[in-house]
What we know:
This protein is mostly helical.
Amino acid sequence: MKQIKTVYDHIRSNNIKTLLLVISFPIIFILLIFLFTWIVVPADQAFSTTVGVAIPTFIACAVWLLISWAFGDSMMLNSAHAHEISNEDPKNKEIFRAVENVALAAGLPCPRVYIIDDDSMNAFATGRTPKDASVALTRGIIKKLDRLELEGVIAHEMAHIGNRDIRLDMLLITGVGVTVFAADVILRTAIYGGGNRDDNKNSAAILLMVWLAFMVFNWIITPILRMAVSRNREYAADATGAQITRNPKALANALRKITTDSRVECLDKVKSMAAVCIAYPGGPREFISSLMATHPPVEERIKRLESMS
């Protein structure tokens, strides 16, 4: 007899998958640098080159992460044209109370609540820690979902906060930005390094191999791994959200409605925001490989939620 998966099984499984995917980033990066440089120099020199490239890259990632940590949440809210609401505003009192109730059920501090003036249905969470987190909801999602469905969506976003998914996504975005910039610097150094001596030619060859390794990492490996992490975190947030409300069916029903109109026009050109929303917020998409999708298929998300009922 096939064992039925519980909410906890889904959460545990997705957390393990996410951990393995995150660990893959530095391991694959280091292996690519070594293998590409090994093509033009002996293994010992390829190893020293790999160390010489990896250490400053990781330091740069750490520095840029601190900058993103300080300003990332406000940049996301500004990109969505979101404005904060308070508990004292009679028009928004019910929404604020719904967020408070879900936060209490999740055992988390109540986040700041923002509204996006868009009639589509979408939502996202941001913030460095649960203590300074924010939840943003579109006007459309507030109007078109019933109370239980809206609580399911809020619980999904609270799950992202509790699971520290915002921190993880910020780390991945920062890493990508640093490696893209580093690849450009390396290419320019290889081209304009100057000199015709054999040692300079050898250095240029090494730099070109390092640049190729960066390019493979930036444009092939990173998108695949990052989207895989994003999909796993969506599954985990669905499962955790269902655990918070004890009503997975409400979130499943909400997802059915949301995917009929999830486009947020102001986010059409902000590609980095796609992964943090509960559903893809951009315009109509052409065929895209499942490897490059920011979200799992909604049918699969609904199927998993209904299996938890």
